[in-house]
């Protein structure tokens, strides 16, 4: 089991290492991490910090995808959550009041949860295909976010709120701590408790799971709710980092990055087996890629194209069929060996 | 028959899967114009040999010669182009496409570069008419029964100018008439010089149709025999590698059940699936369910498990009214259901043997109360041992197991729940003699232990051997309940099925 898991994560890890290597070459002192004013600083810390919202959204997405579904609405939930929190904080008499900020955060997260439940009900109770069901909220949610912000950008000036996405705690950026907590919780729920098995069963064969007595409706509602919550937390982080809420652009296209992170991490879009560690690696690859684009000075007008190229290469590297073809033809022993091993593991009977 | 040059010769074939040595130095040859049976228990390597031959898998050792030329197919399509067509155990067609599309998929008749639909339908109908099948070829395949789908698959395989036709358990879902029809077609193909490789677990069928056979055991070659050289008993002994005592052990009628009524169905029915029926199953009683394919056997079983909603009637479990609206509710009442369609309704292919085995128990406990890993390992080890599941590594994905071993895992999934009523829908379909005897003995033991069993099977001998009473279904109606006494024979049972009344 652990050998297999190691195996699956070899390629994403290699890609991440490669990207970091590029940065080491192009950027002086890329790997150095310093303590300044009691806070950790450095490029690596930045990657983790700026990648935190994506990791969160991707974690939620992982469970949804493992059930064979997909959640397109997370970007909109990110915007709604940030907008609602900022709207409430901006209305506070004292924006620095911890109680007021906590209340605002609670309301924003509650709404995110509710939106997740909504998605889950559409998919499980009404039986709409996930891509359509969540498309509804993806489009309507953007509108809702703009409604909340009244089409403006709400700015706040609240120290407690700033902590979530831009602050530090125990020398670490607070966002990293939140991600670590959510990741630990998710791993506990899915791997220590039996939620992971039930999710993989529903994603692997929904009818067989029903006949085995799994309440698949409950499982589906749970994963969409969890995805909503993760997106909500990510929304707070993003808006807190810039101390403002932008209903139009906050979390725009983050759902696509999150889906990409899940897929790079080795979870199949058709559902079934999932890997949380793989997803974290996938999200870090995407964030590192963004950092790399800035650090090696790719002209801004070609960044999207550059990103697309790298992602294409990553996906090709991940494909067993592709690796088998390319490496076998070259007959290069060091590269050919792992490819051949991987291939055997994938053989169905 | 003087020995002509073999059309196909496989020598020293070896194939290794992770954790499993599937084939080891197997030789195999096939003459033109013969029906050659490939025999072996589940997991003996029959399916793997076929998949190696048709290029689904590569080989690790050995070589394959077709008509004297060394070949290595990159996939089933390449094999088909070279004249080797395959019909697999489970129908591998697209249920949402029409019958004609399924027959001609990938090689549609064209005119001016576009598909010539009319010609396609005409040729499909002609082809099926050759198999005595008169159906609407423009209807979607899913509109037809599994048996018809199987015939369509054969029609498709036959039409591609095959030199070698591989039939991997084509008869497991066919009734007697359909089997006879298939055999007619096979004989016709044989006369045309096509070599047919035939896999079936029905020994009678082998002896009726085959000329020669090759026996495999545990991935190794046992031998190649003329059908007249080997009696059925000798054949079975060679397949399982030991003397068969299991089959005899169940002789004699089972003791009469002593327990009170467990399940009482009163006018239970579902429109379009099965007409209202009343049925009582006692504790410790094995109730056989007999009837032709499509007579409503599975539908009845599904109602008792809550897999479908009942449209009418009521159900009492241990005297108390119960409503089985979902499988979950049925499981809570101690009812378990092992589906006949294990690929669609049983297996979670990506999950391991262990995870598949504990799934129902975990579902009953809920996700907040995981089964401790040690308990899981103990349960799995116990049932892998008790049911002889091979390979015995519980951590490999269940899709790497052979069909019969998958079936044993699914059976174990329900047994660990210790149900009060175990519904087995064709539990021995497509599995070998040794495993079949094991499962039958298990059923007898379970019922002796007080568990009620509803046993659905198309094999009447099996139903008679195990059951205390037999329910007969005909045209989606429960037409008779026959106590399994001395007077009840397979002939009497067949008559009841045919006439729909007491014999």
UniProtKB/TrEMBL annotation, chain A:
Q: GO cellular component terms?
A: plasma membrane
Q: Any idea which UniProt keywords this protein has?
A: Cell membrane, Membrane, Transmembrane, Transmembrane helix
Any one Gene Ontology MF annotation carried by this entry is:
transmembrane transporter activity
Annotated Pfam families? BPD_transp_2
What topology does the record note for this protein and the membrane?
Multi-pass membrane protein
The membrane spanning regions, by residue number, are 9-27, 47-65, 72-92, 98-118, 130-148, 168-189, 219-238, 250-269, 276-298, 304-322
Q: What is this protein called?
A: ABC transporter permease
What's the source species for this entry?
Bailinhaonella thermotolerans
UniProtKB/TrEMBL annotation, chain B:
Q: What are the protein's GO molecular function terms?
A: ATP binding; ATP hydrolysis activity
Against CDD domains, the record matches this protein to: ABC_Carb_Monos_I, ABC_Carb_Monos_II
Q: What is its main location?
A: membrane
The record gives the membrane topology as: Peripheral membrane protein
Transport is among the record's keywords:
yes
Among PROSITE patterns, the record links this protein to: ABC_TRANSPORTER_1, ABC_TRANSPORTER_2
| Compartments, as annotated in UniProt | Cell membrane
Superkingdom to which the source organism belongs:
Bacteria
Question: GO cellular component annotations, sorted alphabetically?
Answer: plasma membrane
Domain (ABC transporter): give its ranges.
8-243, 245-500
Keywords noted in UniProt:
ATP-binding, Cell membrane, Membrane, Nucleotide-binding, Repeat, Translocase, Transport
One Pfam family, short name please?
ABC_tran
Q: What is this protein called?
A: Sugar ABC transporter ATP-binding protein
| Species, as recorded | Bailinhaonella thermotolerans
């Amino acid at each position: 089991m652990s050998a297999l898991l190691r195996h699956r994560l070899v390629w994403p890890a290699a890609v991440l290492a490669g990207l970091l290597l590029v940065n080491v070459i192009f950027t002086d002192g890329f790997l150095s991490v310093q303590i300044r004013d009691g806070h950790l600083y450095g490029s690596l810390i930045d990657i983790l910090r700026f990648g935190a919202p994506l990791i969160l959204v991707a974690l939620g997405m992982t469970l949804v995808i493992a059930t064979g579904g997909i959640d397109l609405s997370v970007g909109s939930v990110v915007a709604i959550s940030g907008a609602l929190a900022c709207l409430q904080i901006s209305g506070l008499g004292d924006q620095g009041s911890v109680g007021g900020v906590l209340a605002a955060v609670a309301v924003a997260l509650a709404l995110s949860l509710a939106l997740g439940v909504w998605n889950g009900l559409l998919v499980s109770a009404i039986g709409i295909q996930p891509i359509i069901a969540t498309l509804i909220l993806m489009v309507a949610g953007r509108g809702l976010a703009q409604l909340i912000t009244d089409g403006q950008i709400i700015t706040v000036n609240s120290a407690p709120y700033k902590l979530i996405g831009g602050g530090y705690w125990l020398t670490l950026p607070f966002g990293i701590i939140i991600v670590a907590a959510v990741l630990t919780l998710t791993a506990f729920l899915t791997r220590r408790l039996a939620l992971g098995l039930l999710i993989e069963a529903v994603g692997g064969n929904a009818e067989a799971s029903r006949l085995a007595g799994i309440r698949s409706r409950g499982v589906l509602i749970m994963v969409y709710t969890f995805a909503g919550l993760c997106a909500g937390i990510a929304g707070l982080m993003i808006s807190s980092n810039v101390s403002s809420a932008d209903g139009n652009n906050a979390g725009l296209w983050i759902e696509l990055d999150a889906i990409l992170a899940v897929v790079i991490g080795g979870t199949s879009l058709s559902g079934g087996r999932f890997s949380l560690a793989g997803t974290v690696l996938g999200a870090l690859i995407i964030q590192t890629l963004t950092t790399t684009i800035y650090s090696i000075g790719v002209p801004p007008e070609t960044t999207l194209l550059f990103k697309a190229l790298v992602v294409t290469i990553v996906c090709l590297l991940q494909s067993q069929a592709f690796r088998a073809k390319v490496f076998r033809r070259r007959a290069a022993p060091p590269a050919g060996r792992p490819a051949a091993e991987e291939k055997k593991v994938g053989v169905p009977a | 028959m003087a020995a002509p040059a073999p059309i196909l010769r496989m020598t020293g074939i070896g194939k290794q899967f992770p954790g499993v040595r599937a084939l080891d130095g197997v030789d195999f040859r096939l003459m033109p114009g013969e029906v050659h049976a490939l025999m072996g228990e589940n997991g003996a390597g029959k399916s793997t040999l076929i998949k190696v031959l048709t290029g689904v898998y590569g080989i690790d050792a050995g070589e394959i010669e077709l008509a004297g030329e060394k070949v290595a197919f990159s996939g089933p399509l390449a094999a088909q182009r070279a004249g080797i067509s395959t019909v697999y155990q489970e129908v591998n067609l697209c249920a949402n496409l029409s019958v004609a599309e399924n027959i001609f998929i990938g090689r549609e008749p064209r005119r001016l570069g576009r598909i010539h639909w009319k010609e396609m339908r005409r040729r499909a109908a002609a082809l099926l008419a050759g198999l005595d099948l008169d159906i609407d070829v423009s209807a979607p395949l899913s509109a037809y029964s599994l048996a018809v789908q199987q015939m369509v698959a054969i029609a498709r395989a036959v039409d591609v100018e095959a030199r070698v036709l591989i039939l991997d358990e084509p008869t497991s879902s066919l009734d007697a008439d359909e089997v006879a029809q298939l055999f007619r077609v096979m004989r016709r193909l044989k006369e045309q010089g096509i070599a047919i490789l035939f896999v079936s677990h029905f020994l009678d069928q082998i002896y009726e149709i085959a000329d020669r056979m090759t026996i495999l055991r545990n991935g190794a070659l046992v031998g190649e025999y003329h059908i007249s050289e080997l009696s059925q008993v000798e054949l079975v002994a060679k397949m399982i590698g030991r003397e068969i005592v299991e089959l005899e052990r169940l002789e004699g009628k089972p003791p009469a059940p002593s327990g009170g009524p467990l399940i009482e169905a009163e006018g239970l029915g579902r429109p379009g699936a099965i007409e209202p029926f009343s049925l009582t199953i006692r504790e410790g009683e094995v109730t056989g369910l007999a009837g032709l394919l499509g007579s409503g056997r599975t539908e009845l079983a599904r109602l008792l498990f809550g897999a479908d909603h009942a449209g009418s009637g009521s159900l009492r479990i241990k005297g108390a009214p119960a409503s089985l609206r979902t499988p979950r509710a049925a499981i809570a009442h101690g009812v378990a259901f092992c589906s006949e369609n294990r690929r669609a309704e049983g297996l979670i292919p990506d999950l391991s043997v262990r995870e598949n085995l504990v799934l129902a128990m975990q579902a009953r406990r809920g996700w907040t109360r995981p089964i401790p890993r040690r308990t899981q390992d103990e349960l799995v080890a116990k049932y892998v041992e008790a049911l002889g599941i091979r390979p015995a590594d519980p951590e490999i994905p269940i899709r790497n197991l052979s069909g019969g071993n998958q079936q044993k895992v699914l059976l174990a999934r329900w047994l660990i729940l210790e149900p009060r009523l175990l519904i087995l829908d064709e539990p021995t379909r497509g599995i070998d003699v040794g495993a079949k005897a094991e499962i039958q003995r298990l059923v007898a033991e379970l019922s002796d232990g007080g568990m009620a069993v509803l046993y659905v099977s198309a094999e009447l001998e099996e139903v008679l051997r195990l059951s205390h009473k037999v329910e007969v279904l005909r045209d989606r109606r429960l037409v008779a309940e026959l106590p399994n006494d001395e007077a009840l024979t397979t002939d009497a049972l067949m008559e009841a099925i045919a006439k729909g009344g007491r014999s």
